[in-house]
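We now fix the convention by which a protein and its fold are recorded. Think of the row as the fold of the chain written in a discrete alphabet. Here is one such record, which you should read through line by line.
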Amino acid sequence: MKKSLIALAVLAASGAAMAQSSVTLFGIVDTGVSYVNNINAAGDSKYGVGTSGNATSRLGLRGTEDLGGGLKAGFWLEGEIFGDNGNASGFDFKRESTVRLSGNFGEVRLGRETTPTFRAGLKYDLFGATGIGQFMGYKDWAASGLADGNTIRKDNMLSYSSPNFSGFTGNISYAFDEKANQATLGGKGGRYIGGNVGYDNGPLSVTAAYGTLSYGNLGDRDEMSIGASYNFGVAKVVGQAQQIKYKPNAGSSEKFNNYALGVSAPVGGVGEVKAQYAFYDQKGDNTKAHQLSLGYVHNLSKRTALYGTVAYLKNNKNSGLALQAKDVNTSVGLGKNQTGVQVGIRHAF
């Protein structure tokens, strides 16, 4: 009898300990067929099986441990997967690789993750920064040559996110340069600092963000943005404005002003139709580009959906902006217009 009681006590204690910790395997597999024309100066077209037309395909692990007193420790490891070729170049955790500590004070994270400037803009892109319909404002406009020269994610980052104060939140992040680019750029090439403040309450969302990325002795990239959305129930309206400014140590600065406006609406309780217009005023190159994207997502279940997207990009003068269709096309002939189509299936687990 005593042994039985001891065994029950051990099992109860073990169950309590296990309840305080959790590890989750999660992911998305999104694969489809894409077609894009004018992929080069000759006007050739390209089509085939691609990935991440509606949501970025990914595989990840995340976990938390309850330390007591409202304090929690956790981790997040997430990498991109390619359904069309099975990650021919190998799998990594470059989407996110962080350890974190959270409590009543907010949350602190260490590692590689999404920057607060990109995270702010992502909220107001109806196409979720993926596929041919996505808003492309966060690219490396100046083609600086710096590895990971955009401001989407950064290595070696320390981030702090505040608690939610009646809808108000804030985030600030600092990415150490660690002299990784010292040989080619000198100075503090690769260093990033940025933050955002937002308000989300009911149907209204507003977020402003600012960040700067150092190119070492070459100069800096500054960016600022503001975005907002309002859900009317029958439709949701989103919009954002962004300015990216390159400030070289020698020569004049270059500006790239980007804008997006979109609307989405539910269809029959199982689908969503969306339309988005983006204008890229590339003052640094004295060119302009207009993008119109239309999409429909049909949910077969809570985890599985079919989707279709059509996008048209009009490049003025010598603009070389191209629709983004992973594993299908990343270039365009200068000054050429471009049309793209994607259809596919997305499954989350």
